[in-house]
C-alpha cells in the first residue's frame, strides 16, 4: 500500500517549533471515566489520535454522546443514556487498542455486564491481562471467555477489596481506580503504578466526586461512593511525545521547541538527556531541546516504573545513543521485547548487541527468562537510509528519527501506526524542515 509508506530523505537537522497536546496515555482513560458519571463531562486538550477515535466509537456504541466543546480540542461526553451495545459492533473494534479492557468496571456499574473484544496495542512483549481479570474477580465480577471475547457480569453491586498487584501495572491500577470509585466500601491497592497519567486520572475522578488518597509507598485507597457527576478537565501534556521530539532533535543535531511540554512530568528524562549531552531550556509554555555541538556521551540507562526512566522514552533515545561516543548500556525492565526494534537500526549501520542478562543494574523479572532485554550500543556510527517496517508505536517513531538522522533515503513502511499516538506527525515533521514525501499512487 503506497499510502502507508513514507520516503524520508535524511541528513537535515530538525529545527523549529511543534506543539504537543494531552497525553495519549491519559485522554482515552479520562473518556472512559466519563461513563461513570450521571452528568456530562468536558475534556480539554484532546489530541486527534487513533486511540481517542477508538474510545469515542466504543462510548457511542454504549449510548454516550460525544461531541465537540467550545474550544479546539475539547470533547463533551454525555453518559445520561448508557445502554448495552451490540456484541458484533463492539467486536468491530477488536485488535484496535488496549483501552477497551478499561470499560469493564464502568460498564459493570452502569449495566451489570460488559463485553470486551480482543485487545490491540503494541507488540512489545506478551502484554497479558491477568492482573485485570484477577482484580475484577476480587471486586465480585464473574468472567466468561467466549469465542468472540470476554463476557463479564456483576451479579450484585461490586464490593471494595484489598489488592496487591504483583507488579505496578499502569493498566491494572487504572482498572482498580475505575472500578473501586463506585464499589461498595473501601478498596486498598498496594504496589500501584503512580505514573503522572494515573495521578491525572485520579484528579479527573476526584472532580467527579470520588474519594481517593495516595500514600508514599505506592498504596492507593479508594472509598466507594453511590454516585459520580461530570468533570471539566484539561488533560496533562504528553510527556512521551515530548521526549520523542527531544530525541529527534538530538539525533539529527537539531533544535526543536516543544510547545506544551512540561518539566514536572519529564524530570527523569531531562536528567538523562543532559547526561547524554543534550541541551534544554524550560519556560512556562514549553521546552526547547537542542544538540549543542560536539560529541554526545555514552550512558548506562535502565527503564523502570515512575519515577524511573519511562520505557516509552527508551526507543527514541536509543537512536540518539547510536551517535554517542563509547559504549551505552540499556536495560529494559518493563517490556521484555522492547529492544527488538534495534535490529533495523543495525541494518542502517548502528552497532547494537542484545543480551538476555540484566546488564548494568538491578536484576529484573526478565533476567532468568531468556528475553533479549539488555543492549550495548557502541557509537558513534554513521546511519544509512534503509527499507524499514514499523514494528510498534514508539519503535516506529524511532525509525523515523533514525531515517532523519541517516544519510540517503529510507522507505518507512507502516507509518499509519504512528497515528495511534502522535497527532499530525507528518505536518509536524514538515514544520521542522524534514524532507519527507508520500510516494505518488501507482496508476492502475
Ligand atoms: N502486566 C502483566 N499482567 C497484566 C498487566 C500488565 O503481566 O495484567 C505486565 C506487562 O506485561 C508489562 C508490565 O506489566 O510487562 C507493565 O505493563 P502495564 O500494565 O504497566 O502497561 P499498560 O497499562 O498495558 C501503559 C501504556 C504503555 C506504557 C506502559 C508503562 C497505555 C495505553 N499504555 O501500558 O504505553 O508503556 O503503561 O508505562 O497507557 C505507548 O504509549 O507506546 C505504550 C506502550
Q: How does this model look, in words?
A:
The protein folds into 2 domains: 5-20 and 237-437, UDP-n-acetylglucosamine1-carboxyvinyl-transferase, Chain, CATH 3.65.10.10; 27-234, Enolpyruvate transferase domain (UDP-n-acetylglucosamine1-carboxyvinyl-transferase, Chain). α4 runs parallel beside α6 (170-180) and α6 (170-180) packs parallel to α7 (196-208). By secondary structure, it is an alpha/beta fold. The chain has 13 helices and 24 strands. Strands 17, 18, 19, 20 and 21 form a 5-stranded mixed sheet that branches. A 4-stranded mixed sheet has the order 22-23-1-24, covered by helices on one side. The protein has a 4-stranded mixed sheet with strand order 2-14-16-15. The structure holds uridine-diphosphate-2(N-acetylglucosaminyl) butyric acid. The site of uridine-diphosphate-2(N-acetylglucosaminyl) butyric acid has 27 residues, from α5, α6, α10 and α12.
How would you summarize what this structure contains?
By secondary structure, the protein is of the alpha/beta class. The chain has helices spanning 27-33, 50-61, 87-91, 104-111, 130-139, 170-180, 196-208, 239-251, 267-276, 311-321, 342-347, 393-405, 425-431, and strands at residues 5-9, 15-19, 41-44, 65-68, 75-78, 113-116, 142-146, 149-153, 162-164, 186-190, 211-214, 220-223, 232-234, 255-259, 279-283, 286-290, 296-297, 300-302, 324-331, 351-355, 374-379, 387-389, 409-413, 435-437. It is globular and about 65 Å long.
